[in-house]
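Hi there,

I know you've been waiting on this one. I reran it after we fixed the sequence typo, so this is the corrected version. Both the input and the resulting structure follow.
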Amino acid sequence: MNYLNYSAYYIDMLICSRHSTKKRLIQNSSAIVLMKMAHNKKSMKNIKEILNSINIPDPAQKIYMALLENGKATARTLSHRTGITRTSVYDQIKILKTKGLVTERAIEGSTLFEISDARQLSILLNEQADQLHTQQDFLKKNLPLLIDKSQSLQPKVRFFEGEEGVKQLFKDILWHDNITLYLYWPYEQMLDFLGKDFLTWFREKRKARNIPIQTIWGHSNGKIKDNIFIDDGKDVKRRHLIQKNIPSMGYIIYDNKVAFMSSRKESFGFIVESVEFTNLQKMQFDILWNNTKK
């Protein structure tokens, strides 16, 4: 089952089961209840991410999630449950109706809103994917021209803040072809800052793009804790800089750029795009490389 179909299937399951939730809570032990609650919380987060991906604004998401969790409701009830004014509730309902995500029914003189067929989410995701595919094709055809227009002799510096910002810095590297990465890498600090999952993801992406690396690992002793790169292949050349008080900031040289990243303590990074600066850093890296241990 692919991701889009799974998303729609899961939402259908939530809708069908919402009226029997209380009964299940009574029947199950407290441990099982907690597991189910944790699972639902994670699943609801995934649904919100789906709504984000199809450009549903946050207030409309709250309306949709309230209907998903509690079933059909009037505008007054939705206003009470979400904290959104009643007038704004109607505005958000209009957005959801335009997307085909919500329908309305008149029952005993009251207008009730409820979510429509959950497979509509899958349809909207497919439409979004098609649009992205078309845009990606355009970008591939026109990327050389765009690169030529964006490049200049003037050096450029871009700053990145926080963990997510520094992760974006790493993703910039994956846009380049026919490069080798030259790293000064304080491994334990980078593992603490960026996490095992992200570094493993980056390694797999790098290997898939056939990007070799030459790296100097800085650490204060000969022992590496929790080495997730122990099975690296021939595309990785590594040496070790062992000394007290090693710098906790790392850098990566690639193409005509040098990317710097701090430890978690300061949580920032920046990329310098400059031929002269890159050549200087590469010269310093080579000197350091020739004076470190394998």
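Quick highlight: The longest strand covers residues 213-219.

Best,
R. S.
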